[in-house]
Each structure stands twice: as C-alpha cells, then as structure tokens.
Amino acid sequence: TITPIGNAIAMNVYCIDCHRFAPSLAALGLLASFGSSAAAQESLPELVVTATRVPIPAEQSGSAITVLTEQELEQRQIRVVADALRDVPGATVSRSGGPGALTEVYLRGAESNQTLVLIDGVEVNNPDGGAFDFSNLLDLEVERIEILRGPQSVLWGSSAIGGVINIITRRAQQPWQASARLEAGSFATRQAAGSVGGRGDRYDALLSGTWFDTNGWSAGSAWRGNSEDDATTIGTLLFKGSARPRDDLELSVMERYTHTRSDFDAFLGGSIRPVVDSNDQADSRQNLLRLQGRFTLFGGAWEHLLGASRYDLDSKTDSTGFEAFDSTSHSNQLDYQSNYFLSTPGAEQTLTVLVKDKQDEARNTYFASNSIHNTGLALQYGLGLAERLFLTVGARHDFNDRFDDTDTYRLTAAYLWPATGARLHASYGTAVKNPTLTELFGFSGDFQGNPDLQPEESRGFDIGWEQALFDQRLRFDVTGFHNRIDNIIVGAGRTVINLPGESRTRGIELSINAELAPKLSGTLAYTYTDAEDSEGQDIPRRPRHLTSLNLNYRATDRTNLNLAVRHSGSFTDTAFDSETFATTPVTLDGYTVVNLAASYQWNDRWQWYGRIENLFDEQYEDVLGYSGTERGLYLGARYRF
User: 374 Cβ partners below 8 Å, 6+ apart?
Assistant: First the structure.
C-alpha cells in the first residue's frame, strides 16, 4: 500500500522493482493513510518518505537519514520519544530535569527551533516560540521515526535548517484488534496505555490512549541544593482513520490531544545557584488535527494530495514571585502536493509540485493576538538512472507578510555499486528559519519584540560513504557535514536582533549496524560536532563527542535482552544573570548512562517486561543546574486481545 504521511507518503509493501512502485501499487487500489499496515514490517526500514516526500528505498536518498522502527523502540522500552533520539547520529537531546521537563533536540549543532518536527503530517513547532518541546511526547503507537539531517527548506519550509524529525504512528492492522499495557516503578511512576480498532477493505480506524504519572525527582540538581520532587502527569488520546470509497480515492483524519501538568524548579540566574526548589507549575493542552484527501489518475501515475491541518497549544505557568502567565497559539495550514511518475527504459522520473499556505497566531498575558502568514511554492525533480544513479534538484519561493520573501534550493545525489555493497551519497542545500511571534512582538513587559527581524538563512552540504560487508551482516556509514547560518537571531538586552556574521557547524557522523551472531545484533552511533557562533565561541549544549551503543540479544524465541550505553563528552553551557542579562560560559562534565531492558513473551497474548534506567546512577546535567535521569526500576505487562 501507499500511505500518505501528512504531505508525505509511506509504502508498506516492499517492491523488488522499487523504481516502478507508484503506478503499479496505485493501480491495485491498496490505499492507506497516516501510517503503515502490518504487511512487510521488516521491509519498512528499507523505505523513507521524508527525504523526497514520496517513498523511496533509503539507499536512493542523497540526504543523510536515520530510521528508528517500532521494533527498536520496543526492544529498548522507550517511553519518551526524545530518549530514542539520543541514539541517532547528529542529534543532541537536552532535558531540564526529569519527565515532563522542557526537552530540546538539536540536529547537527543547529538550534532547537531550527529543526522541524512533524507528528502524522502536522507541523508541531511552537507557533509562538518556534521550537517543539519533546517533554510530553510519549511513545503512544509510534511505528517509525525518520530523522532527516541537513538544510531541507525546499520540501519542508521554515525551521528545517538542522533537518526534519518525522514521527509516524501506526494504524489499525487487523479486522479487530485491542491491546492494553500497565507499568509501574521507581518514583511512584505509573503508566497505562491501550488501543482498540479495526480494518476492512474500505476503511480503518484506531483509537489509542496513554496516561503517565510520576512523583519524579527534583528538576533542580540535588547536589546543588535542590531536593523537592517535581511531579508530572501526561495524558494523550489519538484517533486515526480513513475511508476508501473508490480505488483511486482516500479520505483520512487524525486527531491527537495531550494534556500535561508538571512541576518545575525556578531559574534565578547567576553562576553559583541558577536553579532553586520551588512550587512552580506548568499546565499545557495540545491538539493536532489533520484532514487529507488523496486522488490518483492514470493508474497511479499522477497523484494528488490535498490536506488541512490545525495545531493548538494552550499553556499556563504559575511561578513563584511572578504573575501567572497564559499563552494561546495555533497554526492553520492548507497544503497541496502533486506527484507525477514517469517510467522509461533505464530511467525513472518523478516531478513533485508543492503549495503550502500557513498562518501562525498567538496571544499571551501581556500582548493581544498577533499573527504571521506564509505561502510557499516548491518544485522538485527526481531522476533514477540504470538503478544506480539517483539525483534530485529542487527550488522554493516563500511569500511572507511580515518580512522579506525567501528563496531556497537543494541538490542531492546517490550512486550505488551493488557488486561491492558500496554507496556514495551527497547533498547541498539552503534553508531558512522565520522569526517567531515572540521574537517579532515580544513576550512580556521586560522583553520587547523586534518587528524588523529577517529570516535566518543557512547553506550546507554533506557527503558520505556507506559500505555493506560480510553478506550484508555489517553495514556502516561515515558522513561529513558543514553548515553556515547567517542572520542569527539573538538576544540583545531586552530585545532581539539579527546578528552580523555567521555561525558555523561542522562534524562527522558514524553509524554501524551489525548482525554479530544469529541472535545478537548491535548498532553504534558516533557524532563529532564543532559548533561556533559568529565570534568563534562554542555554541552552548553542543558536546563535541556523542556516542551511543545498543546491543540486542534474542536469548530464546520468548526472551529478549537489550543493553544501551550512551556517552556525552563535556560541553559548554551558559549561566545567565536575569537582572543584568549578562552571560557567563560554564563547562559541564561528560557522562555515561547505561540502561538495561528485558522482556518475556509468556504466550500469544501476554508479555512481561522490565528495565533499569541509569543502571550505575550516574550524576549528570544536560542543562546547567538541572538533574539528568536518576536510577529507576520499572516493571510492566502487555496484553493483546
């Protein structure tokens, strides 16, 4: 089946002649939406949709991309999506405390608001502040995560300077299905999850939910004098469904609602004690809605996707010594994508046209409603020659109402040597990050916006070599990248400005996947990142060295064991004085965290599992003054009806 993922598409059945999949599969009328079916689960990692917005085998992508599958998430017992991203080359995760605390992800040294995040086709970057907070994104029904790195604004628009993180959840796979999961453990942690749904020839529907509650530990580091536990409660409901009244027509809907209440410790500024225990609380409500229609012509050779999305984010913060702060923001988006597939002897061609119209609007306690409007028009051409050489070229123009229009472009190439298992891949592109509503209009009486801001602009490239050895049992990829960013928006006293000069990020990404023995597999990810601002200073929270090792052992047909080791080198953070706005660099020590997970499949319905997080109780900080994960033991059971 061919599956729309918002504006993208996923293929659920691996096709041996992958270059000819679009017309042939569409002619069968096997249509799906917002996810993928159970068919050929093992083939899913071979296909990616984020790189070109049409499904292609990963080896045909000139851009660097990593796929995390449902199976990998289950083996590692990932409960918060951000934890899975720690195992991705080029990705850095910073969390300001325990579960529910502000969680930011940086790709290739770019800022967190310079990475675009999608959930089932909905762009979820904060309409007001620009960055997506991963703190309340639980593992509910996640089927796969695609992490596309490098400048990607041609296909994805603003915020795709560091790359794109595309999170795709599953859909109903059987005529009738239901499951339930219960889990409990350290820090009075409890979690419950369940789903019910069904699938027929002309429809599918799945309703899922999860509830997570924990007393947690102190968000502020205990060894800096903070000991009060900071609790978090997160609840999420998800509905996905589609109807196929005809073989060439599909209508889809997705709705996701999340409510989060969390305690946090106040940031006071200064280099001695930046965080103190407090009774501060944050309450947020997030709603995602996506409607989409898909229509094909000429036996699938011409495909049309028309979609509408809405993203609502409401939050309230009560902080000691300050007035309660309320913020309401939303994004409305209309998009159209047309794909034309042309197959000729020795060549496969794809022409993609994109139109996206988006409006962001926000208001808060201090300011009335403000908005920005953007319309983007993009064109991409893809060419595959002799099943070895794969090229794409694309360009985009964005019309902006509050600042100058922008133009971006992108080129990619991949070349295969099937006989030796080698692949060369490279890309060069430009990207933009538009000013946010907060930066344009301000945040409070003490922070004034700058309506004269211009978009941040980047240009970057990467080049890599992938090699398969020992009959595909070992595969490694080494990629070098370099990115320059102009017009960086930074704080200047009580406002923000476009900084003269350019910042620079460069580095090396290494990934290794190996079948070490019939029942033992492993993955290794390493990233070296050199990130400097326009003055040659290290950009905060960007470790130069990041390493992740995962070993998975299938001890028996019923028993699975998993070991995860994650190491971060030392890095610089910033101590901030909230009265003078002065900043001071502070070096935080590197750390190593070890996690263990085990599961036992008792029968076809019951599974028992458990894990230990931070096995050796490593004391560390991702953010100055805020504690990393503390050691905890968690046990649970899953039942499939």
Answer: 157, 158, 356, 357, 358, 359, 398, 399, 400, 401, 434
